[in-house]
Each structure stands twice: as C-alpha cells, then as structure tokens.
Amino acid sequence: MLTPGFKLFFGMFAAFTAAALVYGYASGGSHVGPISLGWKGGVGDHIGYGVLVSLAAASLAVSLVLVAFRDADSEAQAALSGADGISPNPAVASGFWPVAAAFGAGTAAVGLVLHPLVFGLGLVMVVLALVEWTMDAWADRATGDPAANRELRNRVMAPVEIPIVGALAVGVVVLAASRILIAVSALWAVVVAGVVSTLILAGAFVYATRPGQARKLIAGLGVVAALGLVVGGVLAAVTGERDFPHHEDEIHSESGAEESGAGDGGG
Amino acid sequence: MTVTADAPLELEAPPQPRYAERPLGVLTRPQGGRGWRDWLSTVDHKRIGIMYGTAAMFFFLVGGVEALLLRLQLAAPDGSVLGADVYNQVYTMHGVTMVFLFIMPLAAAFANYFIPLQIGARDVAFPRLNALSFWIWLSGAIFLNTAWIVGGGGADCGWFCYTPNSGVAFSPSHGVDFYAIGLQILGLASLISAINLIVTCLNMRAPGMTLMRMPVLTWMLLITQFLLLFALPVITVALFLLMFARLFGAPFFDPAAGADPLLWQHLFWIFGHPEVYIIILPAFGVVSEVIPTFSRKPLFGYEFMIFSGIAIGFMGWGVWAHHMFVSGIGPISVAAFSLSTMFIAVPTGVKILNWLATMWGGRLRFTVAMKFAVATVAMFTIGGLSGVTHSVAPADTQQTDTYYIVAHFHYVIFGGGVIGLFAGLYFWWPKVWGYMLDERLGNWNFWLMLIGFNLTFGPMHILGLQGMSRRIDTYAAGYGFELWNMVATVGAFLIALSMLVFMVNVWKSRRTAASRPAPGPDPWDARSLEWSIPSPVPEHNFDEVPVVRGRDEWWHRKYGIDDDGQVVRVATVEEAAQRGDAVGVHLPSPSFWPLAMAVGLPLIGYGLIFNLWLAVIGALIVIASLYSWAFEPVDDPDADHGHGHDEGHDGGGESGDGPGPDDAVGEVETAETDEPAAVGASEGQS
Amino acid sequence: MTAAAAPAELDHGTSGAGGAAGHGGDHGPSTGISHVKLAMWVFLGSECLLFGGLISTYLLYKTRANGRTLPTDVFDIPFTSVSSFVLLMSSLTMVLALSGVSRGDDTAGRAWLLATALLGAVFVGGQVYEFTSFVREGVAFTTNPASAAFFTLTGFHGVHVSLGIVMLMSLFVSSVKGKLTRNNSETVEIVGLYWHFVDIVWIFIFTVIYLIPAD
Amino acid sequence: MSVEAAEADPSEAAEGHDAHHPTDWAYVKIAIILAAVTALEVFTYFRSVLDWGVALVPSLIFMMVVKFYLVITWFMHLKFDNSIFSKMFTTGLILAVGVYLATLTAFEFFG
Amino acid sequence: MTAVGEDPVKPRPGAVRGLFRSAGAALAALVGLIVSGCAADAELDTFVPQGPIAEELHSRAVVPVFAIAGVVFVGITVAMVWLIWRHRVKSHSDGDWPRQTHGHVPLEIGWTVGFLLTMAAVAVIMLVALPTVDGTEANAVAVDVDGREVMWEPTVVVVGNQWWWEFRYYLSDQVDLAALREIGDAQALPPADIVTSGQMVIPTGEEIELVVTARDVIHSFWIPALNGKRDAVPNRFSPWKIEASDPGVYFGQCTEFCGLSHSRMRMQVVALDPVDFQAWVDRTIQDAAVPADAAARRGMDTFAGICTSCHLVEGVNDETYAANGADQASGAAPNLTHFMSRTTFAGGFLNTYNPDGSLNRAELEAWLRNPDGMKANYTVPGEQFRGMPDLDLSEQQIDDLVAYLATLGRPPAGWVIEATEVLE
Ligand code: HEA
Ligand code: HEA
Ligand code: CUA
Ligand SMILES: [Cu+2]
Fold it and tell me: Same domain, yes or no, for E116 and E141?
C-alpha cells in the first residue's frame, strides 16, 4: 500500500534526481557523468549537483521509511487499534497530487539555479498540487458517502478548475495558431488562417448534419487536427519568427508635436 | 445609524440559523437569519439598501470632516492648518468621497429599498447581483480610501483629475492610481446595479402596475439607472486610459508625444454631466413623494413630472462641454453647448412649478420631512439659477473655477440632493426601522442644517464674483475675501452640528422606540404601496402581491371620492394594510459568493499598483467565486422553505388563475439560473 | 383581503390597458420577457458607449505618430480580412448552435458551440499574431498615441472575445455533461447575444479602423 | 422609452419566441450575404484594381451598416423579439454615436 | 464702483436687453453693493471691469443673465413663501381634504412655453455677447524696435508653467496663431524679442491678442478686470484678448488647478500709456550687460555656474544656457534678463520692491535661500524639477547673487511699484 507520505517523498526524490541530472548537464557536465554520480565523467557545478543529489537521496530514504511504517494507512490503523475490519472511514483515494507536488518542488529547486521562470513554474505547480491534494484529502474524509464527497470536492474545486482548464485549452489553441502564423510568410499566414477556419466550419457542418459514420470520422479527424495544431505550434515556435521589416525610421510630419528628444515610447 | 438591527426588526420570530445541522461543513450555503453573519450573505434588497445607506452616512462623515478641514484652512487668510500638498489631497478626496461614496450610494440605498416595494415586488430581478453590487461598491470605497495609508496620500488632482496634471510625471504618488482603479471598481458596482434595477422596474411590476402608474420616486430612480448605465462606460474608458498611461506608460495624455489633454476632459464630462443628474434625480423623486403626502393632494401633473425627468435625462447628454467653456474648444462648440445647456432649465422649471402647484390649495403639514422637501425646492432653485448664469458661456469665463461655481454646485448638490435625501430619511425612517424619528430634534436638525448650509455656501457666490479661485489652499488678505470665508467656515460647523443633532436623534429615537406607540404601516397617511405593509417591512415584503388599479394605489385603497368630489374614507389603514404574517413565502437563498467576488477586485487593484502577483490572486478569487456562483443553484435545495404555502398564496385571491403557478418570485429564480452569463460579460468592463 | 374595497376605476394613467383584468392574474415578468435576456440587452446598450469611447480615442489619435511608425503603416489588410471573416462566420455557427440546442438536437448544438469557440480562438490567435508582428515592425504599445489607442481598442475587443470563448467552452462542457438541454437554451441565447455583439463591434472596427484609409 | 407595447401578452411573447424564428437555412443565407458584403469591402482595398474615388468612404460605411443591421436583426433576433430589446440597445447605440461624433467634431472646431 | 450705474455701453438692438435692463440694473446694483461694501480694494473683483472688453462682457452677458435669474428667483421665492403661509395647517384631520387636482394641461403648456421664451432670451444674450470675448479686431501698434519702426499687431504669447507665467513678445518677426499651431509645442517656441514673466506689460487703448498655451500642465490665464479667463493647454494654442482703458496694474490668478503651488501662481498686467510702453520696449529689448560692481561680478560668476542650468540672462549666458538646457519638467525657468523691470517675482507672488521703491532684499534673499519655503514645489533629486530647487547657497553667494540680480534691468515707474504691492 503506497501511503501519501511515501508518494510525496518519492515524488520529491524523482524530481530532485531529474533536477540533478538536468543541472549536471546544464552547468557543463560531460558524457554520462551526471547519470553516474560523476563516476564516468564529470558534472559542471559540483556544489549544486551535490546538493540536489543529496536531497534526492534523503527524499528516497524518507519515502522508504514511510512506506515501511505505513503511516496514515487506514488498514494499518485498523490493525493497530485492534479492530477487525477497515474503519468506516473509507480508504483514501489514491492520487497523483503528492507526486505532482514533489515534482513541482523539484522543478522550483532547479529553477533556483537555472532560471527564475522555471522557479516560478515549479512554485505554481507546487501550489496547485498542494491545493488539489488538500482538497482531495479533505473531501475524502468529509462524510461517509463517497458520492457526497465527490460532490463536495467538485463544488469547491470545479469553479477553479473549469475556468483554468478552459483558459488553458483556449490558450493552447491561441498560442499554437499565433506561433504558426508568425513563422510562415505573410501570404501563408492568410492561407493558413483561411484554411483552418474553413476546416472548422466544414467539420462542424458535417458533424452536425451527417449522423453515424461521418461523425466518428470527423471526431477522429478533429483529434488528429488538434494534435497537428499543437505539434505545428511547437515546431513553429522552434523555427522562430519570420523576418519583419522594421519601420522605426519613418517620420510623420503630422505628428502634432515637435519631436522632443526624450520621445522613446512616450513612457 | 448602525447596521445591526436590534429590537425593532425582531417583530416576528426569526428562523434560527441552522449551521449546526448542516452536513457538509464549511462550504455550505448560508441559510439566512438575523445574526450579524447573515448580513454578509444576504440577498434581501432591504438589507442591502440599509447597508448602502449606513455606509453612505459613514462616508458622509468622512467627506464632511474633510470639508471641515478645508473650511478651517480657509477660515482666515494664509491658513496653515493643512499644507498645500495635504490641502490638495483633502479637497480632491472630499469631492470624490461626497460624490461617489456618499450621495450616489445613499441614492442607491433608496433605490434598493424602495423600488421593489413601490412596484409591488418581492425582490429585485437578480438578488445576488444586487448583493454583488453592494459588496463591490464597498470594497471599492475602502480601496479608494486606503490610498491615504498605503498610497502615499490621497489623489491630489481634483475630482475631475485633469490630465496631464494627473500623469505620473506631475502626480508621482499612488493617489491617482487609487483614484483611477477605485473609480473603476465603484463604476462596475453601479453598472451592475443599474442593469439589475432597470430589469426590476421593467419586469417585476405587480399586476396592473403600468409604467405610467409607477410612483415618481421609482420613475426618477429608473431614469437615474439609465443615466448610470450609459454614463459609466464613458468614464470607465477615461479611467482605463489614465490607468494605462500611469502604470504602463501609454502616451494617451502625454503632450510631448502629441496627445491632446482635452480628450480626458471630454470623456470625463460626458460622464460628469449626466452624473450630476444622477445625483439630483433621486432627490427629485423623494420630494415628489413627500410633498403630495403632506399637501394631501396628488402630485400635480404626474405625466409632466415623468416626461420632464426623462427630458432632463436625455438633454443631460448634450451639454457636457459647458465645463470646458474656457478650455479653448472654439467658439462654435462653445455656442452650441451653451445653447443646449440653457434649455435644461425648461424641464427643470416644469418640475419646480409642478411641486408648487401640488402645494397650491393643499393642506400643508410641515413635518420635518416636509420641511426638508420644501427646502429642497427652494435651495435647488437658487443653485439651478446660478447654473443658468454659468450656461451663458461668455459670462462663465468670469465665473468658471471660482467659488461662484463652488457655490452653484453645493446649492444643487447639497441644497437639492442632500437635503432632498434627508427629506426621504425622515419620511421613510419609520417604514425601514419601525419607529419614528423625533420631530423636535428633527426640527433642530433641519433649521441648523438650513441655516448652516446657507451660511456656508451663500457667501461663496460673493467670494467667487469677487474673484476668489477655487482649489487654492491660501489666499491673501486684502482682496476682500476675509469676512465671507470666515462666515462660510462658521456655517460649515453649523452643518456639522446639525449632523450631530441628527445622530443624537437617531440614537434617542431608537432608545425610546419601545416606549412610544409603534408607527404602524402608514404613519403619514401616504400614497404608495410600501405603506400598505407593516413597518418594518417583513422579509417577504408583501403577503400577497398587490393588484394595482391606478396611481397612488395605496391611497385609493384608503379613500374614495364621492359624487361631490369630496374625499371619503373607504377603509382604515388596519383594514387595508397587509399584515406581514404570511409564512413560507418563497425567497431567494442567500449566498456568500457576491462577497467573495467583491473581495477579489481590490486585490486586483493593489496588484496593478504594487505587485502583479496580487492581481493574479485577486483574479483567481473573482473567477472562482463567479463559477461557484454559477454552480450554486438559485434555490438552496437544503433550505426548507415552502411549508406547502407556495402555491396559490402569492396568487392573490381575486386575481383568478394564470397558466400554472407562475408567481413573480418563481420567475425570479428560474431567470436567475442564467445570471452568470451576464456577469461574465460585465466582467469585460474592468 | 380588503383591497377589494378599493373603488373600481381609479386609473389616471395614460394607458388604459394593463389593468388587473387584462392580465388574468399573471405575475410573471410584467413585460413577458426573461430577466436575463433583458439584462443582457441593457448591458449591450451600455457596452456601445464603452467601445464607442475606445473607438473615438483611436479615431482622434490615429495620425499622431510622435515621429514614429503608425499602426496604419503596418496594417496587413489581407490577413485582417481573413480574421474578420472568421469572426463573422463564428456568428453563423453561434446561431446554428442556438438553433440546435433549442431544437433539442444536442449533437448539432455541441458541434456548433465547439466550432464557434474554435473560430473565436483562431481569431484571437490571429490577433496575437498581428500584435506580435506589429511590435516587430516598430509599433509597440507605447510608441505613440495612435499605437496605444490601437492596441487598447483591439486588445479590449480581444479580451471580450476571449471571455466569450470561455463562456462558450463552459456551455460546451455542460452540454457534454448533459446539463444543457432545450429547457435552458436561453443560456445559449444570452451567450450568443454577447458573442454577436462582439462580432458587430468588429464589423465596425474592421471598416472604420482598417479599411477606411487614414489620410 | 416607453415599453407599453411590450406589455401586450406575455404568454404570446413567450411562444412567439419559437414560432417566428428563422430556419437554419435562413441563417446560412444571411451569412452568405454577410460574407459577400465583406468580400466587397475587402475588394475596395485593392485600389489598383478599382479606384472608388470619393465613393469609397460612403460605400464602406454603407456596407458596414448593412452588415451591422443584418447581424442584429437576424442573428440577434431583434427582428423577431420584443421591441423593448431594440429600444434598450438602440438607445445606447444612438447615444454613443451622437455623443462621440459630437466630441470628435468638437476637436475639429478648435479655433 | 458699481458697474451698472455708469454703464457707458451704447444700447444694443435687441428686445431682451431693454426688457430686463432695469431689473438687471437694480439687482446688479444690489449685488455690487454687497460686494463693494466689504471689499476695500478687491483687485480681482469681477464686477469691476476696467477695460472695454470686460465692460462689454459685464454689461452684455453678466448683468442681463443675472437680472433674469434674479427675477425668476424672486418670483419663485415669493410664490413659495406665499404658498407656505397660505396653506399651512397644524395637523391633518380626517375630514379636511382639499380638492384633488391631478394637473392642468394648458397650465403646463403655458409655463413650458414661458420658460422656453425666457431661455430664448438668455440664448440671445449669449449669442450677442459671445463675440465680445471671442472675436478679434485687426489693429496695429507702431513700435520702435531698435530704431526700426514696426507695425506690431499686438500679440503676446502667454505660456503657463508650474507655477509662473511667461510672456513672449514677437515684435520684429511676428508670429500668428496659425504659425504657432504649426509648431505645435510650447516647449519649442522660437526666440522672441522680449521674454518676461509674472508681469505682462501692454499699451493702453489697444486690444491685445493673446495666444495662450502651456509647457507642462493646464493652467488658466485670468485678469478679471480686463476679461474672463482662458485655459493654457499644452499642445494647444488658444486665442484670447485683453484691453485696458487706463494705465494701471491689473491682478490675476491662475485658475486651473495645476498642482502644488497653484494658489501661488499669480500674474499682473501692467498697462502703460503708449509713450511709457515704448520706453519699456526700448529698455527690455536690450541684452543684459556685464556689471561693473565687484560683488555683482562675483554674483554673475556664481550665476553662470549654478543658475544657468535653468535661467537665461540674454547677452551674458546664452551659450551656457543653451548648453545646459533646463532641468524643469516644463523645460523652462523665468528669463531673468530684465528681472528688475518687473515688480513681482516667483509667479507674481513676491514683491521685488519695497513700497518705498527700494529693493526688497529680504524676500529675494529668502527666495534664494530656500525657494521651497516661500512657495512649495517639487524638486526631488532624480525627478524632473517643478519649481526652483534649494541650491544650498552660502550667504556670501546669496549676497553676490542679489547684487547681480539687482543689475538686471531697470526699475519701472514709481506708481507701478506702488500699485503692485502684491499681497502674499
Ligand atoms: C446635482 C448636481 C447639479 C445639477 C442639478 C446642476 C444643474 C445645472 N448646472 Fe451645474 N454643476 C454641478 C452640479 C449640478 N449642476 C457641479 C458639481 C458642477 C461643477 C463641477 C466642477 O467643476 O467641479 C457644475 C458646474 C456647472 C457648470 C460649469 C461651470 C464652470 O465650471 O464653468 C455649468 C455651466 O453651464 C452648470 C450649469 C448647470 C445648469 C444650467 C443646470 C440646470 O440643470 C439647472 C436647472 C434649474 C433651474 C434653472 C432652476 C429651476 C428652474 C426654474 C425655477 C425655472 C425658471 C428658470 C428660468 C427660466 C431661468 N453647472
Ligand atoms: C455630495 C457632494 C458634496 C457635499 C455634500 C459637500 C459638502 C460640503 N462641501 Fe464640498 N465639494 C464637492 C461636493 C460636495 N461637498 C465637490 C464635488 C467639490 C469639488 C472638489 C474639487 O474641486 O475637486 C467640493 C469642493 C468643496 C470646496 C472647495 C475646495 C476648493 O476648491 O479648494 C469647499 C470649500 O469650502 C467645500 C466645502 C464643503 C462643506 C463645508 C460641505 C459641508 O456641507 C459638509 C457637511 C458635512 C459634515 C460637516 C459632516 C458631519 C460631520 C459630523 C457630524 C461630525 C462632526 C465632526 C466634527 C465637528 C469634527 N467643498
Ligand atoms: Cu497654474 Cu493653476
Ligand atoms: Cu454640467
């Protein structure tokens, strides 16, 4: 039985290990050095790598201890208290949140040395995971009725999750589309936007009007298209933007105000 | 005035809060009751109205103390009570506080409390949105005033905050940021409330309550809501631009980048002028209820009163540049706006004469409320007439930005708006609280206020014509300003004294309420529907939704006119009034989400000013509350209302059978299911 | 109920109609229309002044270059035309979604809802692209009054579209969960009104800001 | 701003809601018109092909108004719905157009 | 002092004026009485016009509209008092009900039309009076500029700054409104023949066109005795005009809130008869000269070292000034070339001379010692200055500077000094 405590620390172990690896290479390590704890080759920054590896080791150790002693495990507790069955408190639903939280923490730690953005990302992950985890844990014990518990959990979390997930979904489409458009030439941008929207229209039309087979086909195609969009977006982002003519030097006579030397963005 | 409703409100046994038996712990839906916590989650339009009123009176004291500081500084030449810097902040915050945090919410209090009662409804169209409006307003008000503490001082740019003086370069403290963001928050509150009340007026009227039977107060409040509806987006745009200019360096008002400083002025005054009618129309409505009651005559020329109100509302949109006569907009614009401005005197004059004609031949009984109402007419006329002297643009070049203007607008705002609303306070006090205000103290209050007011602002006419500029923190001796400034300061303290008397009156009247006879439903022998139900008003307002057959419905239930044209009583108040004892009337369930959502908005504000993370947290709170709200059923399934009384009871015995049990309240609720769509959309505002 | 004692005809109102008898005791909305729909229309009336203010700001400032590049110099009309077209077609899909839902045809409703949201997303994506390219070409938010007004106006519109998309997605989700039925098709109608409004604002912007040449 | 007309008969209004709504095909037709007008609008941009001269701005405005009108009447159902909606909306619209046109004009007259 | 009693304005055609004139005169006389009774020398009094423009404005616009408003006020008030007196009762007894009147349409129409007609009259008043302040009159003043006769179309460019006014005279190369609008920016005005601040000098009997603008925020130019006010808006050049009939000093105050020391932003117009005016031009068109006195020379050096980053003394430090530019948000500080020729300084707010005509050393020194103490300002290091900063001058430096400043320009006539005597 994997207890939550185990999950947390094992997640942290995983994250710190990954962090150590990334950091080992990123700071200038070579070959298999970082994988082999510096046995075959070296790592860049020894101190940082060392800290991360020891953190990973510590987490692993704690996680093992926790699973060995079966903390907070209802079965264990039942056994301890001498009851002959599992207590009416239902088993804690298993969840990935501890792992996610730990992974976030690891990411944040890496961010500390790598880049503030990564740190922020990690922090956000930790917070999100902790919130979700807490809510799950709380809801799981709220009443004796799992359905009511789920309901309760949803009542609290859905208002946060739905808009965020919705915004993320839209954000992905928007981001991917804009990356693609900006990677291709101006003319192609027109074509891409036109084609994509025509496809959406056509797809919806077919889906809405043709029952049966066509529907499934469209749904399938839709999934493919969505994947394509994401992949395209990533590719486009990697390719980078096309070249833009820069108009900086154009001077407009009717600007209204004489150019006062300071005018840089009018800030 | 305090929020907690003690003795008088507990006439009926309140349902006990049932937190204890609730199964699901912390996030349960509030149940409603009479404890203080229930005020936080209430969606009852009456309680919301009371909260608006209480908060407004609090801010009246704040703005009033600011005014007293101004008057102290100006009492004598070379005053040294406040430095120039502080003076500028104080007068700015005085204007902003009085306009946005006192008189508008006080009018909102009347709107919330009395529109549903006057049209015979159980609540407003969107009860939770109503609560939301209040909480947003309150959080905005608090936000605005925290500038004193965390913003490095209040805004110091004047209440119309002309650019570029309000840009970062010229006003580097955060005061103006608080102004720009705070007013947006307040605007959002008023916008939501305007939509809500418009729908309420149009859609929730009792059977038979046609538009041309609506009481004048409701009518004026409705017009006010339309003005708010259309004026607020304009200032929102202005504030938005200002905010972007200050926080992100957008050159909207930067002359060096070629921007035009007059853009702000146009946007501000397109809002600003309708705003002054937003301030005055509710008071007009109050006066139109009080004068007929105490003249024992119906309002003279009802239709003309309504249409002149509408006309004022419309014309108010075409005059804004009269605040810019000297700003260099060119002679053609000046002439056009000067002309349009003058003619507002026509519908306003129609109102004045109709009030006089109502009194003409009446039996005028001068209760305190009546005194206030009549004083409103007199004082407003003075202010209106000085307004007409401004409207002549060439003459205004001598007047603008002097104390003559300050005199004008205090006469219309205080003499018209505030005194008018005080008439309303005295008039409806027994309806709201179940006890009368003491008339003797009320008289002291009235006379002190009237005399103090005229002593304060009367001399400002002279000061202005003698050339005293406004917004100056000191003036020199020898220009002839000394005497009248001193008089004005003395007057201001008389007003303060009158306010103290008012507070004593409230306190004393309440303490002695139990030992005096209860006012009953209709202490003044009044005319509109709210007087047909008990005082204080029971939570469900009407036992039975009344069926309306004419104007002044309640009066007609008490009196008839015989063949000689004589008034005869057909029913006593006791016979005609509702008892307020209906049980189990279906009411919308309370909710915490409006409050929660309102808390998020100032966080966004602070975030924009200090640290964007805060804004993210604020936004999360807002969004989460919004969705929680959307998922929350309008009707709490766990709440036990009903008792089987629902059906048929509201139907009102005589009204026969409609298709199905579609009582007004039921309609509220089904409709409300979709509310978040509207909310989500209005979010786009901020 | 003693009200019955009231005299029979006391109507001084100008309209004779609307007496109790005429209404058959109906206590529903006095106008017979839904609160929310009325509220939405009232709100849209207000929005006119909001967008009007931003549009006017841009029109006032559109040639104030502060010696630098104007938005009009970098407009990509062909692309914006496609964007406009996309948004216009999303209005069509929106109506079809409403029509589907109120017919009880959930599949169609869902498909069109999703299509509307996607078209909206393509539009916003196009706007992000447009903004980026403008910035690359030397027209940033603070470049001059014209650019600031341009970005504020179109950005504000973009935010409106995005909010609309989130609403549409929420509808889509509840439809998938089976909570959006013919009975509450009015919700779709309300969101639709908002959506079409955002579309007509763009109709206005496209003509007045993009197509009419700035002299 | 009278809504007297709106007070006719609620039940009928509620029913009318479904009864008078156009068919999907009608919507598609409207969309086709809209698309065509848009195409025409865009066409004006290619002045090398056809120069509209002084007619350009008026025709653009005209086309815009047509599109605007079609969307609000058909897609937003103003044509079929209670007239109170139109009143609310057009009040805002007219105010906005009037007030802002006046403002922009005022900037022209500065002299 | 009442403006109406001596009203010299030829009666204008227009029924309205005739109608309301007598009532107006009576009312205005009453108001004038109150005003004059309490103000010994109220230099800002708007009811004491001193030049033809202000007088016309007063008699054509102010008096008639006040008269109409007064009549309406009296009417309404009398009606109201009468109603209250006539119809008041102590209490309402059950049987005592008046006749229930609901309205009277002819009456309503009647008073609506009555108001419409009244307002139409007010409209006529406005339209008649508007050209008084807005129209311009083509005129020219012969001015001798460095021995050259110039027909000066009397225009003064008025520039608001935080918190002082600058007045620019373009005599030889005249600029007009259109040209200035072409330039578009008050921070980039072309050099002028005479630049002064705080005090505008004009010839009597001539309509002076003003072009009002500002360099930083909005201000408003107002000399109540000579005309109403006009805002000074950055990026905008607005026409305005003033005219004084008699020689004298006319006081004014900036009336648009412009930040911290708005209340201390004042100005005067000194009207001189044409001969004196020419003499003033002759004096002030000259550049400053290097002083002979040793202390003043030391002062000049100090000035060159410290003050020229903001102040210009023409003929002495043009280059340094051009090189340093101004640290002000407005890009400008008062031009001190003829400092002594004006009787007030620091935004028309402090006296340059004592009443006996001697230099007001105390205030000048105090100003140099701590300008902020005399007139609040924002001079935070690192930010753009608005106002004159505290420069940490030693007493020696201050003495020297005062000695130097005293050499810049010559004092005006004694009566001007006497008439100015601003009240702080
Ligand atoms: C409650 C608020 C309120 C109201 C109702 C009014 C009403 C009017 N106002 Fe006022 N006004 C303000 C609040 C208000 N105002 C404020 C706050 C400012 C200053 C803002 C600032 O600068 O800070 C201001 C400033 C202001 C100015 C700008 C002054 C300046 O800065 O230069 C002008 C100019 O025209 C003006 C005109 C009018 C007019 C013509 C009316 C008319 O509506 C008045 C109509 C009423 C009457 C005329 C009296 C009754 C009528 C009769 C008895 C009929 C007979 C009369 C005649 C035929 C003449 N007002
Ligand atoms: C609703 C609007 C409203 C109201 C009610 C008032 C009320 C008052 N105002 Fe008003 N005022 C404005 C709106 C209002 N004002 C606006 C918009 C401006 C323009 C701002 C600007 O230029 O930007 C302005 C500007 C303004 C100025 C000009 C400042 C300047 O230009 O430099 C002055 C100066 O005297 C002034 C004075 C007063 C006074 C004495 C009162 C009094 O009537 C207040 C009376 C109330 C009280 C006194 C409260 C009661 C207090 C107690 C009971 C507590 C007792 C406490 C003690 C005795 C300490 N106000
Ligand atoms: Cu300058 Cu006020
Ligand atoms: Cu106004």
Answer: no
